[in-house]
């Protein structure tokens, strides 16, 4: 799973490159998923669920857990595989 960060500043949406000096991703349960060396791809390791947490390295907040941005990553065995083959456009 590939992640990206988009921020809204002054009403404009902008994409931030990850990892950066300010923002980094972290996988909560390393037995379920592993963050690749590029810092934006999480590889599934086992069936289960874990949180992928966005850490603001500049945040100094005693109540950090309540303000943490995260996503739930659920890993499951596939029930089906669908492949669509489209004609090549020239």
Share of residues in strands = 35-45%
CATH topology tier name: Immunoglobulin-like
**How many strand segments?**
7
Label the structural class: mainly beta
Number of helices: 1
String of helices and strands: EEEEEEHE
Give average pLDDT, whole number. Answer: 86
Distance between the termini: 30 Å
Helix content: under 10%
Q: What CATH first level would be assigned?
A: Mainly Beta
The tally of domains stands at 1
Question: Main sheet: which strands, in order across?
Answer: 3-6-7
Backbone shape: extended
Annotated CATH architecture: Sandwich
**Structural Rg:** 17 Å
Q: What kind of sheet is the major sheet?
A: 3 strands, antiparallel
What low-confidence regions span 5 or more consecutive residues with pLDDT below 50? none
Task: Chart the SSEs and their pairings.
Layout: E1 5-9, E2 12-16, E3 23-27, E4 33-35, E5 42-44, E6 48-56, H1 64-67, E7 69-75
Antiparallel strand pairs: 1-2, 3-6, 4-5, 6-7
Put the structure in a nutshell.
The protein is mostly beta strands and about 90 residues long. The chain is about 5% helix and about 40% strand.
What do you see in this structure?
With 90 residues, this protein is mainly beta. The chain has a single domain, classed as Immunoglobulin-like (Sandwich). Helix content is 4%, strand content 41%. It is built from one helix and seven strands. A three-stranded antiparallel sheet has the order 3-6-7, with no helix packed on it. Strands 1-2 form a two-stranded antiparallel sheet. Strands 4-5 form a two-stranded antiparallel ribbon. A hairpin with a 2-residue loop joins strand 1 and strand 2. The longest helix has 4 residues. The protein is extended. 4% of the residues are buried.
